[in-house]
## 1
Amino acid sequence: MRERWFGATGRKVPEVAVEGTIDLEGALVLDDVSDVAAIRQAHHDGTPVVVRCSSPEEVHAALSLGPVACALVADEALLSLDLAEMTYG
């Protein structure tokens, strides 16, 4: 399981996690990646950024943004995505 830094908290979290399985205290939780300005500002402030995702494409889009710490999913099948394959083919 790959991990990412959870903002400036000093914690690492799984890059893809089932919603409800990790502590999101203090994080900016978004339903999509459309608010790039908010994502950049949160990253600048050291606030962890988490995005809810419901498809492989949404997970890929969220994790393509460096400031995003974690993609939250409801479907456990999304935990096994091959993100390298999705990115590089």
## 2
Amino acid sequence: MAEPIKTVIGFDFGTHWTGVAIGQTLTRQASPLNALKSKDWKGIERLLQQWQPQILIVGLPLSMRGEHQEMSKRAARFGRQLEGRFGIKAVLVDERLTTREAYQLAIENRRKKSKTEIDSLAAALITESWLRDFDQDDYY
């Protein structure tokens, strides 16, 4: 039997930068990590070696109507590449409004954040949305 899912890494894929977050199934919480240049495969590999996740979460940017768009295709491709390169299951998660929510959180905390910090905060929100619905039995 496979090892129980404990650690996940979430990605908010972008054309220039990709936000990154680490999450765990026990607390169902995620924390932002440093964003990476998009498709920085060596940086991603270092993260995976350091954190040893069992699942990768990739934000899927859909239109407000839930329709796929050009960035949806790019994010889905990124997820397939992650899975193919590293042999870790990648799950696509609806990411609508997470960047807006990340900016709002930064405003509420009265702390100006860089674009890359916002990207990683959005990755944490995406990861937590998956963790809220996580059921271990769905993966075995």
## 3
Amino acid sequence: MSFEEARYLDPATVRAWFPEGSARLRVEVKDEFCLPRAVAKLAFPLSHPDSHIVLMDVENKEYGILPSLEGMDPESRAALQKELDRRYFTPKILAIRELKQDGGMWRFRVVTQRGPSEFWVRHWRDNSAEIQPGRWQIQTVDGQRYEIPALDALDPKSLRLLEQLL
């Protein structure tokens, strides 16, 4: 589907669920099509994480765009939200406990909303980005994304450690 062909779907006509025993999302649009192995992606995951959900098949053929999850039945909304949460899970860094350079990489020991975590970052300038003032996204050597939602919300020790990089 090209930009000119983008088709917005009415959320009230979309039904989504995980069939029993399956980890794959199934999506049906009333009287139009069924995607037995649907893929849901956000068109603008950083700037609009609650809107513009692109529905596609496993070959990445786009079938339509949901403007938002508003107006969907509660079960479908929950299924799509679960799929998006799985795809876009990004731990939020609440504190930095340790930051050391070792062998050309930076080792982070942090506290996230899900507990403590440790990860490595190579080439800080290439694998970090300030996506909004004071909001940073970090990509680890294994491809995981972490986010610092607000630098000014970090404790003084975390800020001192980050000064090495910023």
## 4
Amino acid sequence: MFNVGDRVVYPMHGAGIIEAIEEKEILGEKQQYYIMRLPVGDLRVMVPVNAVDEVGLREVINSEEVEKVLEILDAERSKMSNNWNRRYRANLEKIRSGDIFEVTEVVKNLSLRDQEKGLSTGERKMLESARQILVSELVLAKDLSEQDARSLIEQKLQNNIAANE
């Protein structure tokens, strides 16, 4: 059970803050909902309290985990399939997992691939989606502005690209 003010991550959408817990009637059924505000993109999302495990709602990472995210951005690229379809499915599965370390790998691997060979439209959209999720979590985990979080990620990726040239 989460409380108002908790910083949580909704996989595939990103990190947000629970602003309220309200009972709503939808399709004739009353349920408790977490009302989340996602600062990146300025969205409000309703998550049924009884579906938290199902959707993978979890707490925002702590400072030690932020350091691990930054280490992943610095690390060498992990193995990816050369087959576009397999690579796309594997990356989508990583994003859906809700695991920030998996999402970070997707951002790193696709960014490095984009520098080398370019990305298809689908992979470019996937990269932007994964980057948005990563940015939103860093914003709340480190109390950064969206721009500062994006800059931190870009700086790490540029250092990685330079090291691999």
